[in-house]
Amino acid sequence: MSTLLEVSGVSVSFDGFKAINNLSFQIADAELRAVIGPNGAGKTTFMDIITGKTKPDEGRVVYGDRGDSLLKMSESKIAQAGVGRKFQRPTVFEDQSVFDNLMMALKKTRGPLAVLFFKPSSEDEDKVAKLAAEIGLSGALHRKSGELSHGQKQWLEIGMLLAQDPRLLLVDEPAAGMTPAEREHTTDILREAAKTRAVVVVEHDMEFVRRLNCKVTVLHEGSVLAEGSLDHVTKNEQVIEVYLGR
Amino acid sequence: MSDVALGSARRPFALRFPSVLVFLAILSIFTVVVTVLSEGFGVGVISTSFVKTLGKTLCLCLVALAMDLVWGYCGILSLGHMAFFGLGGYAIGMWLMYARTEIIVLESLAAAELPPTPEEVSDGIATQIFGVVGASEFPPIWAFAHSLPLQLAAVVVVPGLLALVFGWLAFRSRVTGVYLSILTQAMTLALSLHLFQNDSGLRGNNGLSGLQNLPGLSDVPQSIVSMWFFWASALALGLGYILCAWVVSGKFGSVIRAIRDDEARVRFLGYPVEAFKLVIFTLTAVIAGIAGALYYPQAGIVNPAEIAPIASIYLAVWVAIGGRGRLYGAVIGAAFVSLLSTWFTGGQAPDINLGFYTIQWVDWWIVILGLSFVAVTLFAPKGIGGLVDVFIDRKSPDRHGADLGPDQGALREQEAEK
């Protein structure tokens, strides 16, 4: 297993407030990782940096086989390079059908001219249908996604991520607003996805993290506090203090 | 997979978008009816000047389509598209004026004993055209005015290039929403102020005139010429409608509507948002340029006042009143409001005498227009195009007032389709 993403010595501050402080993080090609931490630990900023939304003040973010720096790339270039992101709040294109949402996400050339002359093949449509089945939205393919329930939107967004076929998947609180049964299904999908790609899951819910059964990184005040199995980190004195103490 | 194939993009375009066929049918019927009733080719019920009004209206519908594409579908509230429209008019106007003046100058010089040199001809034309601004030489931008093909190319290239450069600068700096609108308006204002100057090379506030006279066709009466332009305008509107419908129908349409509703999310899908905006901005500027090139020969004159920011604001008002985000809405809005505006400001509307005050529509029309714009925005965001929903059973979703995306240009609840 080779390293897919390496974040080293990254710091970023907003108006003097250090959101990320000398953070270093690594993830391998096919690995599932949970990132936990209290509010304000810098989890979202961490994802913003990887996806190019926020440029750090210092540090390096190196990605892929050739070791490209993500800091020089635009958001869309980073996404094209295979970094997919799921937001905390489900963000799908509400005015468009489930089918259109998935078709837009499907891994294809992204340039304007290629898109203008794009005609979906029957394979593309089959792929979309298969994804829809996987996320339980087969019956809703031609419904506007704005009509879906909160949970269904979460699913649609997960489906869009899978359609993008990213090498690195960043997932922000996937289980929020889901029923226990849906959570279980989400866990399965994430673990399945992590067999062929790197998956980073940011989560609050310890029970959900336990079910993921993977290595855990604890963030606190913008840097890594502890790393290891869930049992290992929950025994860590500092982690206990941050989460339970004060 | 029959369920998937239902909305498949692989079915014929016309079947998936019946509104295109309906529109083209209505446009064809309208064209035939006007032809039959015209002075030039029919029974003469419709006067030549009204044929010109109708032809100009078709051009305004075309530029409104462009506005709907850029604003209604891509969420960019451009307040500069009438500048591209005006530039198209200037581009064709330069050739019309040059070629016609050349004929006049050659005729007057033909009486001379020695055949005139090219310099004499050129000076003669320049004096005729620029005498009004106290100049007698051709400015550099008239270098191609002698050539119809080159000036026709300019109709497309000049607005397209300006939009490309302006859009590239604005979009790559991530200027969006109100700030972009202000920027486009500043561009329009700067362009119009520049053209107002006598040394702009385009005759200052006189503009270009006599454009209704086609060079070399002075024997053809205006009743015939007006019909030629009417047909050309109808054809351009039909083709423009098909083009716009095609652009918004497929995945490209999906992406630009997604940009309208949630631009940041589209970036994270890997689409280069700026490039898409630039394509749409430039494409619509070109459409606007072509519409302008057909409009001004029917109007007869193009001057810098036509490019003033207010014209572009009117354009946005037409699209809003007609119904944003549906192509036929833009056409309905432009046709309805501009014809009504012609009626009110043309002095045909009877004044209303209230005893203590006489309402003169020439002054009050603008107030009515402003109020209806506010009313439509507040109470009927679907606009006039929304009336169609009553017949085709199209409903808006119930979202408790939430827009369809976080961005400023995002579709509003009532504008959306369930």
UniProtKB/TrEMBL annotation, chain A:
SMART domains from the UniProt entry: AAA (SM00382)
Alphabetized NCBIfam families for the sequence: urea_trans_UrtD (TIGR03411)
GO cellular component, one term: plasma membrane
Matching CDD domains: ABC_Mj1267_LivG_branched
Domain of life: Bacteria
Keywords, alphabetical: ATP-binding, Nucleotide-binding, Transport
ABC transporter domain sequence ranges: 5-246
Xref: PANTHER family: CONSERVED COMPONENT OF ABC TRANSPORTER FOR NATURAL AMINO ACIDS-RELATED, HIGH-AFFINITY BRANCHED-CHAIN AMINO ACID TRANSPORT ATP-BINDING PROTEIN
Entry protein name: Urea transport system ATP-binding protein
SUPFAM superfamilies with a match to the protein in the record: P-loop containing nucleoside triphosphate hydrolases
InterPro entries linked to this entry: AAA+_ATPase, ABC_AA/LPS_Transport, ABC_transporter-like_ATP-bd, ABC_transptr_urea_ATP-bd_UrtD, BCA_ABC_TP_C, P-loop_NTPase
UniProt cross-references to Pfam families, sorted A to Z: ABC_tran (PF00005), BCA_ABC_TP_C (PF12399)
MF annotations from Gene Ontology: ATP binding; ATP hydrolysis activity
Gene3D superfamilies according to UniProt: P-loop containing nucleotide triphosphate hydrolases
From TrEMBL, chain B:
Keyword Membrane (UniProt): yes
Pfam families, A to Z: BPD_transp_2
Signal peptide feature range: none
Molecular function as annotated in GO: branched-chain amino acid transmembrane transporter activity
Topology class, membrane: Multi-pass membrane protein
Keywords, alphabetical: Cell membrane, Membrane, Transmembrane, Transmembrane helix
Subcellular location per the Swiss-Prot or TrEMBL entry: Cell membrane
Main location group: membrane
Ranges annotated as spanning the membrane: 20-46, 58-87, 148-171, 178-196, 228-248, 269-295, 301-320, 327-344, 364-392
InterPro entries: ABC_transp_permease, ABC_transptr_urea_perm_UrtC, LivM-like
Any Gene Ontology CC annotation: plasma membrane
Lineage top rank: taxon: Bacteria
Disordered: annotated segments: 399-418
UniProt-listed PANTHER family: HIGH-AFFINITY BRANCHED-CHAIN AMINO ACID TRANSPORT SYSTEM PERMEASE (PTHR30482), SLR1201 PROTEIN (PTHR30482:SF4)
Protein's name according to its UniProt entry: Amino acid/amide ABC transporter membrane protein 2, HAAT family
Organism lineage: Bacteria, Pseudomonadati, Pseudomonadota, Alphaproteobacteria, Rhodobacterales
